[in-house]
Design goal:
There is one protein chain. With 197 residues, the chain is α/β, with parallel strands linked by helices. It has a single domain, classed as UDP N-Acetylglucosamine Acyltransferase, domain 1 (3 Solenoid), CATH 2.160.10. It has four helices and 19 strands. The chain has a seven-stranded mixed β-sheet with strand order 2-5-8-13-16-18-19. A five-stranded parallel β-sheet has the order 3-6-9-14-17. Strands 4-7-12-15 form a four-stranded parallel β-sheet, with no helix packed on it. A hairpin with a 4-residue loop joins β18 and β19. α2 packs antiparallel against α3. The protein is globular and about 60 Å long. The N and C termini lie far apart (55 Å).
Length: 197
């Protein structure tokens, strides 16, 4: 099995710097650069670039520049998703983002990490694990989601959080490290008469 096949598997792995497929990184960086040069009204052009860059991309993906990723082919966005300014996705493993996800400015989604021991780290040994962001998740500004994490359907991650463990379905979680604060309930609905239309 080659490194690209290993990277596309939905499980964690350890690799050395020499196994990094640099030509794939360069290609992704070029596409990110092209994307970040588009005008705000060029949504069709943006979708065209994202479909070339990502493994899976619907017509209803909206990403505000500046956007960066490592490879692109490991990013799978299923349905409508809005990603705000300055998002970084280190997709050394698969990143699955569900329908209805909202990702606020400055979010970092990082599958990859480095070896803990300094000698190995200096030699480029690294780790990577997949990330799943389920349907209707909202990740607050300047949060970091680490490799191996699943954020459950409908949950909210508070701004500035560091998510290192799985977050269950339908909760508000925040902090560093991110912890569940409470469940989301019917009481959280905004009254229709309070919504401006």
């Amino acid at each position: 099995m080659n490194i690209l096949e290993i990277m596309k598997q939905n499980k964690s792995y350890v690799s050395g710097y020499e196994s990094t497929p640099m030509e794939k990184q360069y290609y992704a960086k070029e596409l990110c650069w092209k994307y970040n040069q588009t005008l705000p009204k060029e949504q069709d052009k943006r979708i065209e670039i994202l479909k070339e860059l990502f493994g899976t991309c619907s017509d209803y993906v909206f990403i505000e520049p500046s956007f960066r990723c490592d490879y692109g082919f490991n990013i799978h966005i299923h349905g409508f998703t809005f990603i705000n300014y300055n998002c970084v996705i280190l997709d050394n493993s698969p990143v699955n983002i569900g329908n209805g996800a909202f990702i606020a400015p400055g979010v970092c989604i990082a599958c990859s990490g480095h070896a803990i021991h300094p000698e190995q780290r200096a030699k480029g040994v690294g780790t990577s694990a997949p990330i799943t962001i389920e349907d209707n998740v909202w990740i607050g500004a300047n949060s970091t989601v680490c490799g191996g994490v699943t954020i459950g359907k409908g949950s909210i991650i508070g701004a500035g959080s560091v998510v290192k463990k799985n977050i269950p379905v339908g909760v508000i979680a925040a902090g560093s490290p991110c912890k569940v604060i409470r469940k989301i309930t019917e009481e959280d609905k905004i009254k229709p008469e309070d919504i401006l239309y």
